[in-house]
Amino acid sequence: MRLDEAVEFAENPEPRCPCVLLLDVSTSMSGEKINALNEGLRLFEADLNQDELAKKRVEIAILTFDTRVKVVQEFVTADQFAAPKLKGNGTTSMGEAINQALDLIQIRKQVYKENGVEYYRPWVFMITDGAPTDNVEEGMRRIKFEEEKKRVAFFAVGVQGADMNKLAEIVVRTPLKLKGLSFKELFQWLSASIQGVSHSQVGEQVPLKPPTGWAEV
Amino acid sequence: MTKCWRAIAASVTGSSHEKSGQPCQDAHNYRLLPNGVLVAAVADGAGSAPLAAIGAQIAVKTAVETISNLHPLPENESNLRLLLLDVLAFARDSVEAVAKTDNVPLKDLASTLIVVVATPENVQAAQVGDGAAVVRSGDGSIIPITTPVTGEYANETIFLTSPHALSLAQVNVWYGTPAQLAVFSDGLQRLALKIPEGIPHKPFFSPLFKFVAEAEDDTVALAQLHDFLKSPRVTSRTDDDLTLLLATSF
């Protein structure tokens, strides 16, 4: 008997690895910076799709913030993800953006639970070149609470011009400063890191790769 | 006439561990005892624990030896349950003893543990963490004895070495006439069970149970089981270490 021909498998959905990109598209980001960010996003899309498991497991959502917060991309698996072309204009409503990102994750987890889909700890990856122009108090509180409860891993990256001290107050993890416009290297790293998580087995705490090549030390 | 058991079991390295050069961190052990009793154990070492393979080996060996030494087992259900909990505690103590002797943190030896005792009249199982034990009864129905215990996230579970592991353990006794039995680690979970309920997928188990029931030569059967776990159909669905123990009564 050829067992591999005789045995049928249960059809379970792949476990999901949700990742929210929270992107600053205020006026100061326009021009060179946003072009480099767009290029980075395209690379992110291509890179994730080279990994057979990751493209079915990693889910991406994109929220942009200027004067307003916009859901540019609802959660989709990487194989359905198409990098958007972002433009910069407006102020920096970071506080509202953080709240909406955390809400989005909460809703997504609920959808997973209702559909019996397993999931990994969600990531939020915030990129900004400024400081919040709105009230960020509630967002800060929520990040601290959610990190403490291990409900989310919230990362922040400052692009040239970002108020790194303010960022360090907002997020629990040490924010990283982008070296020049190395968005490509940043997204390559993000793709590799999240692929690592999406392949991780039970009990594995996946150590993040050092952010060599894109972060200032 | 007292029934007897025949068992085969294989643990294979997952493709992700092959890539990274890690050893197989799953382990299994079993023994046939007098009066038609089979005792079996499966453990899955934690991917993040450097000595998980050793921890898993100690856990299964201790569990099987402890039960063998306690044979014959009590018939009363509450005494059976207490005994199984003692076996888990004993396995944990053995792992702790090694951690102390080698002066390493206990969590470096983290693994799950499933212990199963099958007699002609019942199947008892105790489990910490994920993986599961499934039985086929004489009337053909396929019944889960244990179900995987996971945390909120897909890469989380409880280990024998975790704090409160024993208070979170499942201990179940199923009364009936077992025909076949399967014990497996979490690598096969998504293929074998309907998740998250943990209901056995019949088209997965039926051919495997038929296979072990009809197998004539253990060496040949073991090679077939090994080939199955290494077949592309399986490895394209899971890159984790895999353990599958199959037993049939005759």
Automatic annotation (TrEMBL), chain A:
Stretch forming the signal peptide: none
The species this protein was found in: Gomphosphaeria aponina SAG 52.96 = DSM 107014
InterPro entries the UniProt entry points to: Tellurite-R_TerY (IPR011392), VWF_A (IPR002035), vWFA_dom_sf (IPR036465)
UniProt-recorded name of the protein: VWA domain-containing protein
SMART domains associated with the record: VWA
Residues in VWFA domain copies: 18-197
